[in-house]
Give the backbone structure.
Amino acid sequence: MTDFIEIAKSAKEASLKIASLSEDVKNRALNAIADAIEANKAKIFDANKVDLTQAEPLVASGEISKSVYNRLKLDENKMRDMIAGVREIAKLADPVNKKLFVRELDEGLTLYKVSCPIGVLGIIFEARPDVISQISSLAIKSSNAVILKGGKETTNTNREILSVINSALAKVDGFPENVVQQVFSRDDVAEMLKCDGYINLIIPRGGNSLVKFIKENTKIPVLGHADGICHIFVDESADLITAQKIIVDAKTQYPSACNSVETLLIHESFAKKDELLASLQLEEIKLVANPDSWAFEYGDKILSFKTVGSVDEAIEHINKYGSGHTDCIITKDVNNAEIFMNNVDSAGVYFNASTRFADGFRYGFGAEVGISTNKTHARGPVGLEGLTIYKYKLIGQGHIVADYVEGRKQFHHKDL
Amino acid sequence: MTDFIEIAKSAKEASLKIASLSEDVKNRALNAIADAIEANKAKIFDANKVDLTQAEPLVASGEISKSVYNRLKLDENKMRDMIAGVREIAKLADPVNKKLFVRELDEGLTLYKVSCPIGVLGIIFEARPDVISQISSLAIKSSNAVILKGGKETTNTNREILSVINSALAKVDGFPENVVQQVFSRDDVAEMLKCDGYINLIIPRGGNSLVKFIKENTKIPVLGHADGICHIFVDESADLITAQKIIVDAKTQYPSACNSVETLLIHESFAKKDELLASLQLEEIKLVANPDSWAFEYGDKILSFKTVGSVDEAIEHINKYGSGHTDCIITKDVNNAEIFMNNVDSAGVYFNASTRFADGFRYGFGAEVGISTNKTHARGPVGLEGLTIYKYKLIGQGHIVADYVEGRKQFHHKDL
């Protein structure tokens, strides 16, 4: 049995050591991981086969869906993406030790705001074993320690991948121990969620019941989103072709993605409503006019729809039923677009573009930690920056506060 | 009896309205508040007198300390500071609607990262009624709605101040209702802490038992700090006079402040240790060599002290017992200072400067929301920026993801 607190303590110690590691050592570590996965592909595939063999009867009995089974399965393509993903993260700019500002408070007294790691990340993920190399690499690049807990269906694969990673890290000169650790049991998850003394951020990667469970059961900040109830509002002045193209893309390009559209709102004065709905049905999109709930994520080619009287009514509907993920207005009226983007309280507010663009790679972040619907820390697609915070370095020459309180000296606050 | 959920819902609605309010309306609202407090001083003093009269027997019986009583009490100086504080906040730059970056993802497809309010703030404060005007103003300036819960000892004062504020706001053209609300009971606090569907951030203003209680009892993000266990490490090469000056300032300038020093660590090879300790005792600082706990906040002219063998041992002690608030090294060795600042995991890491500088005004933020020891969102002294998050606006011309996935188009990610 693992003693979770000991693991958490060692992760905390590791986080203090990796915090000041040079970019060079971190990048050597990442490339060593990529090389090691490449060199140990066969072992990883073997472990994955054991998991798949155990999963097969569960698929047959219906306990595991075919799509979950596909996510458990590693193949050459996924393996290549895993390895390439680690190498890409090595190439990104170091997100820590960046000077966010430098301000001279007074002569000889200078304040530096410097980005730094958060500390210890707790990652709870389902099904996809390729998450391990990705999240471990993001953690290393951002100088955080990490404790991973994967789905039980891929225990053998997860164990093998982490063993490959840690064997590689052990050979990297100057790289501290215990930066990447893994736990396996349900009890460990319960311990992790209680462990706010050692774990600074929880990142769930999985379906919305997992994310909801985690958010309900921890006081540790959680980075992620439970629901993706995205909306498209077709305004009175919308161009029919633009509306068709965007809705079809947002609903059918990858229906189970969190940034797919679930609800279509149409302005009652939009003249081509019938044509639009007919064209969507031709694309095999099923339209539901009276859904049981306006906050339901279909994950399929199904779309709730409703007629609204104004852009304000659309905004009100979205702020009431949406999940604060990504919502779009299709219009030719720039003024309405401004009103929509300023008043819809979502991470992404789009004007004439598909909701499917809500993604860290598409935003140009180079890597994606996840998509957040939080209102603090990080919102929307989160890149490496979301795994950092900052500290203030103040460098003086014996400066004391009494001099300023008693009027002998005055701050001049010059940004340098 | 107040129905807390109704208040929270109306705050949420108000937050959606104030989110897009112009800077001009917000500043007119702030100046109207300042004018109204000025014009209604007498009424506020009268209400405060009622509270003070009720508090007097509690002081006599020892239930309330004299220093708490002083904090309850409004006088002309505090009133002037309150009014000036509101006017100062009006003069600060608007923290919302700032373009944090603009990136062309592809021709005609442009991503804007724009600062915006968090939503609804819950403020729980003790004793000092002057917090109301300050926090209300910070909330308005940053376009957030706020629900305040003050200490029961100043119920009459709090009620009067908020009534003055809301009468003033009601007369400001275009300013929405219910932006600033107040609750009074213990039950309301319990409800507030559970209300994660409507409240986005809790800010406690008070002693560490209040802050600890709140952090233990809510899943809503809490901005603040419970303890201020600040350290000063006097390195082998430290200058005696610099060390004396800084330690005396950090311990005696305002001993009950959270950024006062509590523990002194001295390098065993620092030659002038005895002289330093003797000089501190001359300043009436009581030195404790074997404290019951290394994580105790004296709030008085008392200082734990310990000899350590190296800068690494000092860092280890601080990371183990500190509260991540503000810690200082006094040294002539720039290399040791770098090691200290990079490895101490605190919001403020100082080199030859008093820990008392940890303060939003001294950092040049213009206003201080509080000091945070969190590892996400905001850390250290927090200015108006800490009451904001951001949203992504994406403006396209009918752009769809399928074009990029299927290779017909490619992102070029140009920062503008």
